[in-house]
Amino acid sequence: MTAGATGADTRTKLLEGALRTLAEHGIAKTSARSVAASAGVNQALVFYHFGSVDELLAAACRYGAEQRVARHRDRLADVTTLAELLRCGRELHEEERAGGHVAFLAQVLAGAQTQPRLAPATAAGLDLWTAEIEQVLVRILADSPLGEFTDPAGLARAVTGAFVGLEMYEGVDPGGAERAFEALEQLAALAGVLDELGPVARRAVRHRLRRTEKVQGGA
Amino acid sequence: MTAGATGADTRTKLLEGALRTLAEHGIAKTSARSVAASAGVNQALVFYHFGSVDELLAAACRYGAEQRVARHRDRLADVTTLAELLRCGRELHEEERAGGHVAFLAQVLAGAQTQPRLAPATAAGLDLWTAEIEQVLVRILADSPLGEFTDPAGLARAVTGAFVGLEMYEGVDPGGAERAFEALEQLAALAGVLDELGPVARRAVRHRLRRTEKVQGGA
DNA sequence: GAGGGGGTTGAGCGACTGCTCAACCCCCTC
DNA sequence: GAGGGGGTTGAGCAGTCGCTCAACCCCCTC
Question: Is A110's CB within 8 Å of B114's CB?
Answer without folding.
Answer: no
